[in-house]
Amino acid sequence: MPGELEQIKDYMTRLHMTEAAAVVAEMLMNAQVKETSYQSFLLTLLEYEIKLREEKQLDRLYKLASFPECKTLDDFDLKEQNSLSKKQLLQFWIGLFTRVKLSTEAVTATG
């Protein structure tokens, strides 16, 4: 089996799934112990790869933006901003999320 595992890692690396390739052996052992289905194992492995890719992309974008410090809407202090209510901030956040989601869907739908 070590030969098969190395081949799996090699294929994953060739497919640029480096994050998943780094943990596939550990995830396989966990799946065997828990008697996880093939679909569940594969889904977990792919979710792991996607999550780490998204985190890396976000880190790259933050560095590219050259922000003096990284802040999120969770860090926003409403007490310092009298002209904005919590409800308005939430509406902004939902609207922003919806626009990003719709534009992403439009791009993926058209190719």
Characterization of this structure:
This protein is 75% helix and 0% strand. It has 111 residues and is mostly helical. The chain has two domains: 1-69, no CATH class; 71-111. Helix 1 runs antiparallel to helix 2 and helix 2 packs antiparallel against helix 3 (38-65).
The percent of residues in helical segments reads over 70%
Mean pLDDT over all positions: 82
In the predicted model, the low-confidence regions spanning at least 5 consecutive residues are none
Percent strand equals under 5%
Supply the helix-strand structural class: mainly alpha
Q: What distance separates the N and C termini?
A: 39 Å
> Gyration radius, to the nearest Å?
20 Å
Large-scale geometry:
elongated
Distinctive features:
single chain; mainly alpha; 111 residues; 4 helices; 2 domains
List the helices and strands and how they pair.
Layout: H1 2-14, H2 18-34, H3 38-65, H4 86-110
Helix pairs in contact: 1-2, 2-3
Provide a quick synopsis of the model.
75% of the residues lie in helices and 0% in strands.
